[in-house]
């Protein structure tokens, strides 16, 4: 396996897959990860076990899906990944998982409402892409539509998909989505969840921008 321009992306894919398995977002081979590198996409091979995956299970394709490097067949969700990469400028990363609470929620809802302001990092309500057979063009099209103006989507009776500027950040989005699904499920056990309306969501965005929310800031102390 050569190094070259794709070596860092290969390592990023492997680390992300191992972390997804450790976080219990996937079981066995149920998931896939990709990272865009210029005119190419570095992506997991089909049938690769996330917990034991290494760089031999990561292949390189061009933007049309043609295999460029590696001796294994790319994931069956290649079309889904390629469409997400095509939809965004620059190099992005995509993580698809079968996280259990997200799967459960996807069988019940048409969209996950905003039950916590952290969901705004994903774009707000999370749409559920209609069901279609895995690996099909129909499924890819449904997911691409559900991701419009969003960082993540659920896939009916299937799983979830998230994207970001890096694989680590995309996995963070996947984890946030699974957490939000868990909060929603637990709230439903106690009653009807209260959701944040548009005005409340707008206020959160304004406050976050004003306070640089989510960033570490140094305290400026006045001289005594």
Please give a handful of descriptors for the protein shown.
224 residues; alpha+beta; nine-stranded mixed beta sheet; 6 helices; 36% helix
Uncertain residue segments: none
Shape: globular
On the 0 to 100 scale, the average pLDDT is 93
Q: Helical residue percent?
A: 25-40%
β content, as a range?
Answer: 15-25%
Biggest β-sheet description = 9 strands, mixed
- Please tally the β strands and state the result: 9
* Helical stretch tally: 6
Order of strands across the widest beta sheet?
A: 4-3-2-1-5-9-8-7-6
Rounded radius of gyration (Å): 18 Å
Pairing-aware structural class of the strands and helices? alpha+beta
Helices and strands, in N-to-C order?
Answer: HEEEEHEHEEHEEHH
What is the CA–CA distance across the termini? Answer: 61 Å
Layout of strands and helices, then pairs:
Layout: H1 7-22, E1 31-37, E2 40-44, E3 58-62, E4 67-69, H2 78-87, E5 93-97, H3 100-106, E6 111-112, E7 126-129, H4 137-146, E8 152-155, E9 159-164, H5 167-190, H6 198-211
Parallel strand pairs: 7-8
Antiparallel strand pairs: 1-2, 1-5, 2-3, 3-4, 5-9, 6-7, 8-9
Q: How would you describe the overall organization of this protein?
A:
This protein is an alpha+beta fold and 224 residues long. The chain has six helices and nine strands, in the order αββββαβαββαββαα. It has helices at residues 7-22, 78-87, 100-106, 137-146, 167-190, 198-211, and strands spanning 31-37, 40-44, 58-62, 67-69, 93-97, 111-112, 126-129, 152-155, 159-164. A nine-stranded mixed β-sheet has the order 4-3-2-1-5-9-8-7-6, sandwiched between helices. β8 and β9 form a beta hairpin. α2 packs parallel to α4 (137-146). The longest helix is centred in the last third of the chain and has 24 residues, at 167-190. The chain starts with 6 loop residues before the first helix and ends in a 13-residue tail after the last helix.
């Amino acid at each position: 396996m050569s190094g070259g321009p794709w070596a860092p992306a290969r390592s990023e894919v492997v680390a992300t897959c191992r972390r997804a398995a450790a976080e219990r977002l996937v079981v066995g081979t149920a998931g896939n990860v990709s990272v865009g590198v210029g005119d190419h996409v570095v992506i997991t091979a089909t049938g690769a076990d996330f917990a034991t995956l290494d760089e031999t299970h990561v292949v390189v394709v061009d933007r049309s899906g043609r295999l460029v490097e590696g001796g294994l067949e790319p994931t069956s969700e290649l079309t889904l990944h390629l469409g997400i990469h095509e939809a965004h400028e620059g190099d992005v990363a995509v993580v698809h998982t079968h996280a259990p609470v997200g799967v459960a929620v996807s069988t019940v809802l048409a969209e996950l409402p905003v039950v916590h302001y952290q969901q705004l990092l994903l774009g707000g309500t999370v749409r559920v892409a209609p069901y279609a057979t895995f690996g099909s063009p129909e499924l890819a099209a449904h997911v691409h539509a559900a991701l419009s103006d969003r960082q993540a989507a659920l896939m009916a009776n299937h799983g979830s998909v998230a994207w970001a500027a890096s694989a680590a950040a995309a996995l963070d989005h996947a984890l946030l989505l699974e957490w939000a699904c868990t909060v929603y499920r637990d709230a439903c056990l106690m009653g009807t969840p209260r959701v944040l309306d548009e005005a409340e969501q707008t206020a959160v965005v304004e406050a976050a921008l004003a306070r640089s929310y989510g960033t570490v800031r140094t305290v400026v102390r006045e001289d005594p």
